[in-house]
Amino acid sequence: MKLRSLLKAALLVAGSALLIAAVSLLGIIFFLYHNSGGGQDWSAPVSAISETLTPTGAGYAFTGEALLEEDRWAMLLDREGRVVWSFRKPEELPGQYTVADVAAFTRWYLEDYPVQCWVREDGLLVVGSPKGSIWKHDIAMDTETLLQTPFWFLGIFLLALGGVLGLAWLAVRRWFRQDQRVRDAARSGWINGVSHDIRTPLALVMGYAAQLETASDLPPQRQRQAAAIRAQSQVIRDLVNDLNLTMRLDCEMQPLRRETIQPEAFLRQTAADFLNGGLAEGFDLELDLPQTPLPALEADPFLLRRALNNLLTNCVRHNSPGCPLCLGARAEGGQLVLWVAGGAGKIPPPPASPAPALEPDGSAAHGTGLRLVAQIAAAHGGRARFYSGEPFRCELRLPASKT
Amino acid sequence: MAYRILIVDDEPALQSMVGEILAQAGYATAAALSCRQALEQFRTFAPDAVLLDVMLPDGDGFTLLGQLRQARDLPVLFLSARDEDEARLHGLGLGADDYITKPFLPQELLLRLRAVLRRVYREEPQTSRLGETEIDWGKGRVRRGGGEIPLTAKEFALLKKLWEARGNIVTIDALCAALWEGPLVGYENTLMVHIRRLREKIEPDPSHPRYLLTVRGLGYRLQREARP
């Protein structure tokens, strides 16, 4: 759902960007076409003016006044550069021009007057406009560059388009993340609230049940019933704890407080705490550590202990007292493998291949407890493998510390 | 003398239950439902320790902790439904002696309260008994069968560490840290030698220990009662 929405938004933004780019490009092309069509901007093409100027033998007859606006002027130079005919020619302009003068004003300006020229059989027709009314620029480009221009334009266009799309993608992603954060915060707040509200009544149930369990004036049957209430309250407490943590990990709201952990000491303490907590009464918990020292681990000890406790608790809950439980570790190709196994029968050696793994991401691991284990492994850049069959086995493969 | 404990919680039912648990364990208790009541009780009841909820109707436990500590330095344990790391670390960072998350088992509450009181008020008996053996903590000796056997500094530290956690497994790492203030590396065999010598001093039959037991692969446990 999230991916689909993201894709839709990305397509929308990409479509909009493409539309904007296409409209801009077409607009530029239209503008250039419309405004640079052979001097259209000069109101009347100089060729048309030339056609209205005809020699009469003694002079010239000019009928193109209408083509020239009031402030424009014209003159005809003969082949020697003399002005042989003129119409509204500014007084300051000379009556004779050298080749150099002609070459200069053909390309640029004549005494700051922008002029157009038209070669005729009898000379050169020069049509001028008021000073400052027209911008002229001489453009020269070698042919090879000119031929490459479309490719350059296309390249620049694509680059710009890529830039726009990239920015749009970043904006959309940021927007989605913000949106996700708001939703996560709402979800987190709700679960936190529910969890908070459950804890106090649960404390009462658990506390009174534990007191009744040891009350000497109660018959043994009632004490057993109280013990069952206390035990199930503890299950609910664990569930609430797991639910809170799994939600926080899911929403990336649980900061990892990494420390350098020596696996041997850490596993010994975890096993000792588990046994001291009285949860494994009647179970035989063994520690399986290699003779050679294990590599250190950069991990959040609280979270890692929680994962191992969940696995050990899972073994205890689904087996009868007397079953062996095993907590172990081994180094394997730059990874540290922490594993828990338990259940009926002898604990087998580590499986040679990962083939029997159920799944690495915990998605099919039933119950919040095991899902949390997979999440904790993932949060540390590792993965959890749950092996099917009897006895139960789970391995946490975590990247070992490089130092 | 019974310790006086002030329970500050805005939930009367929980307050009542905690009061019963503490009363049964021999503590004198007083209760407060709000910060205002807590400050009043603090003056009139003069508690030795305070069990403090974080969320109170007219303020929060963190601020109240500061106010109480300004008046008098006494042990404070948070008893809260807020289980987030931030809240826990904030509470402990402010100087609380412990942070207990609801729900809790009565036994857990009593053990943690007792540990804090023992630590703060130095409630240490001069002597303790381990079966036929009497441990004299003041003199650092054990008495058995009419004779006195002195303990070396390491044996004393080892016995004290195990006694503090009696009934529970203490890992070899924790014992090494207590004895040499460092990691286990290289000390395991030396630790075993100290354990053997300690057994010779406290066990009736060191070859078949009944009190100081080995938990294979993990560490050692000092039994409360002799293993049959």
Automatic annotation (TrEMBL), chain A:
This is histidine kinase. One of its GO terms (molecular function) is phosphorelay response regulator activity. GO terms for biological process: osmosensory signaling via phosphorelay pathway. It is found in: Membrane. It catalyses: ATP + protein L-histidine = ADP + protein N-phospho-L-histidine. The chain crosses the membrane at residues 12-33, 151-172. Keywords: Kinase, Membrane, Transferase, Transmembrane, Transmembrane helix, Two-component regulatory system. It comes from Faecalibacterium gallinarum. Its EC number is 2.7.13.3. Signal peptide: none annotated. Residues 193-402 form the Histidine kinase domain.
UniProtKB/TrEMBL annotation, chain B:
InterPro entries: CheY-like_superfamily, OmpR/PhoB-type_DNA-bd, Sig_transdc_resp-reg_C-effctor, Sig_transdc_resp-reg_receiver, WalR-like, WH-like_DNA-bd_sf. It comes from Faecalibacterium gallinarum. Pfam families: Response_reg, Trans_reg_C. This is Stage 0 sporulation protein A homolog. One of its GO terms (cellular component) is protein-DNA complex. The keyword Manganese does not apply. May play the central regulatory role in sporulation. It may be an element of the effector pathway responsible for the activation of sporulation genes in response to nutritional stress. Spo0A may act in concert with spo0H (a sigma factor) to control the expression of some genes that are critical to the sporulation process. SUPFAM superfamilies: C-terminal effector domain of the bipartite response regulators (SSF46894), CheY-like (SSF52172). The modification 4-aspartylphosphate is found at D53. GO terms for molecular function: phosphorelay response regulator activity; transcription cis-regulatory region binding. Gene3D superfamilies: 3.40.50.2300, 6.10.250.690, Winged helix-like DNA-binding domain superfamily/Winged helix DNA-binding domain. PANTHER family: REGULATOR OF RPOS, TWO-COMPONENT RESPONSE REGULATOR ORR33. Residues 125-224 bind DNA. Residues 125-224 form the OmpR/PhoB-type domain. Keywords: DNA-binding, Phosphoprotein, Transcription, Transcription regulation, Two-component regulatory system. Residues 4-117 form the Response regulatory domain. It comes from the Bacteria. One of its GO terms (biological process) is regulation of DNA-templated transcription. The keyword Nucleotide-binding does not apply.
